[in-house]
Design goal:
This protein is of the alpha/beta class and about 500 residues long. The protein is built from 15 helices and 21 strands. Helix 3 packs across helix 4 (about 100-120) and helix 4 packs parallel to helix 5. Bound molecules: 7-thionicotinamide-adenine-dinucleotide phosphate (TAP).
Length: about 500
């Protein structure tokens, strides 16, 4: 039977007063797996008010770091006990493969553990600022955190926000993407079974233009942490001006992966495949532009295309599938449109380019791993984020040209360099204007490292200590060591 989801607010699962519901689909076969409510503006405002009241009551915001850490560890335990359910829901709702969902679910539980660990080690600073003055630097929660999440990593992106926001002592309102609420509903069910005070965390399904906009414009929300497209990021920035709330934006990318003549070719081909086709290319940090030095250009393309054609595309719940479905029909159409644009722009289609409607994929949204070569920087498929299994390959002569092409983009999220010459690799990676970079590998990172972009790829950083800082205010407390009149006047 189709599950009917509810909003979670003040510790209760409630229906929306809005009779309209969102069908939640499995993108591998278009089956309706659930119906989700669409919260109204009024319901969003009520949840924000409840979150604010919870914050002001101190029920969570004034708990000690150790007490908050204990609750985060309870959430991590619950997630680990329910890992299989989380994996299954993520596969079913997002279309990704089991292997990908397993990695996301494990990372999500570890994110709660990591922030619990940071709390267990939390400390402030004392500065000797003046002869008779000591200055303490303390961190405090901000208030109500609005967390707006995209559909490509529904579980992991939610947890990247929930864990540090709660660790810092904030109340939270989370809005998932309308089409992918399943795993975050499960996370809230699990949080409900812990000692987290009931009115601290609220989950509102609904559209970006109603729920998202209301959160962003609210004067009672103190920080909006948004992950999504650069286009919506711009809207968020404008809407946040009412109370000058802090914004943290994790946005799109068009990341370069630079392969030099002296790279280990098999390693470079393998990582450059993983770099774009993991998550069916629906990954913000995807290496969607491969820059290859002229000496190995043709050989690289031949090997790369052979490997891309061998990728087994299929439903995520089939253990044999290496690349899953595209999240929705609308997004699939947008990717296919970009493939058409690439052909019209004169790029050479090396392989792929089509929707797959065979071998049990007839009703799903599947696209072949697609490789374009001989592209130039003025093409739209080189400049715009396609966010699908489509990669463009461009030729360069030397180090200088590689850096120039790599940085010829409005984005600055990620980038990679492949070379056996470590000094050259370091020289080049330091010049790539991006926040997340790799040398002789791609995509691998840890919860300890700051995640975020330069230029139009965002503002601020998730994860690591930087991720906790995003949700904290910093206060100086100046204490006189010898209280007496200052005698500035008279
Ligand atoms: P968006 O269309 O930007 O949507 C992201 C979220 O914002 C959704 O929950 C959406 O709600 C909501 N939203 C839409 N309009 C809004 C508004 N006016 N005010 C407030 N919220 C609004 O992105 P997407 O298509 O879900 O995700 C793909 C994009 O995310 C790509 O560009 C990708 O690069 C980026 N991304 C970046 C990162 C990092 S870490 N940099 C990670 C993952 C994804 P509804 O869709 O429900 O209406």
């Amino acid at each position: 039977m189709t599950k009917t989801l509810k909003l979670y607010t003040n510790g209760e699962w409630v229906d929306s007063s809005n009779p309209s519901m969102q069908n939640i689909l499995n993108p591998a076969n278009q089956e309706v797996i659930a119906k989700a409510p669409k919260a109204t503006k009024e319901e969003t405002e009520e949840a924000i008010k409840a979150a604010k009241d919870a914050f002001e009551s101190g029920v969570w915001s004034e708990r000690t770091p150790l007490e908050r850490a204990e609750v985060l560890l309870q959430i991590a335990d619950k997630m680990e006990e329910n890992l299989d359910a989380l994996i299954e829901l993520e596969v079913e709702n997002n279309g990704k493969t089991k292997r990908e969902a397993e990695s996301d679910a494990t990372d999500a539980a570890n994110t709660f553990r990591y922030y619990a660990g940071l709390l267990n080690n939390s400390s402030g600073e004392i500065l000797e600022t003046d002869e008779e003055l000591q200055t303490m630097i303390v961190k405090e929660p901000m208030g109500v955190a609005g967390l707006i999440v995209p559909w490509n990593f529904p579980l992991l992106m939610s947890v990247w926000k929930i864990a540090p926001a709660l660790a810092a002592g904030n109340s939270i309102i989370l809005k998932p993407a309308e089409i992918t609420p399943m795993t975050v509903v499960k996370v809230f069910e699990l949080m409900d079974q812990t000692d987290l005070p009931k009115d601290v965390a609220h989950l509102l399904m609904g559209s970006g233009s109603i729920v998202g906009q209301t959160i962003t414009e609210s004067k009672d929300v103190d920080i909006v942490s948004f992950t999504g497209s650069t286009e919506v990021g711009r809207t968020i920035m404008q809407a946040a001006t009412g109370n000058l709330k802090k914004i943290s934006l994790e946005l799109g990318g068009k990341s370069p992966n630079i392969i030099f003549d002296d790279a280990d070719l098999d390693t470079a081909v393998d990582h450059a495949l993983f770099g774009i086709f993991m998550g069916s290319g629906q990954v913000c940090s995807s290496g969607s532009r491969i820059l290859v030095q002229e000496g190995i250009y043709d050989e690289f393309i031949t090997k790369y295309a052979e490997s891309a054609k061998r990728i087994k595309v299929g439903p995520g719940n089939d253990e044999a599938s290496e690349m899953g479905a595209i999240v929705s029909e609308k997004h699939m159409e947008s990717i296919l449109n970009y493939i058409q644009i690439g052909k019209e722009e004169g790029a050479r289609l090396v392989c792929g380019g089509n929707r797959i409607e065979r071998d049990g994929m007839d009703n799903g949204f599947f696209i072949e791993p697609t490789v374009f070569a001989d592209v130039t920087s003025d093409m739209r498929i080189v400049q715009e984020e396609i966010f699908g299994p489509v990669v463009v390959i461009q030729k360069f002569k030397d180090e200088e040209e590689a850096i120039k092409l790599a940085n010829d983009t409005d984005f600055g999220l990620a980038g990679g360099v492949f070379s056996r010459d470590q000094q050259k690799a370091m020289r080049v990676i330091k010049k790539v204007r991006a926040g997340i970079t790799w040398v002789n590998t791609y995509h691998l990172t840890g919860v300890q490292a700051p995640w975020g972009g330069y230029k139009q790829s965002g503002i601020g950083r998730s994860l690591g200590t930087y991720g906790l800082d995003e949700y904290q205010e910093t206060k100086q407390i100046n204490i006189s060591t010898d209280p007496k009149p200052i005698q500035w006047f008279n």
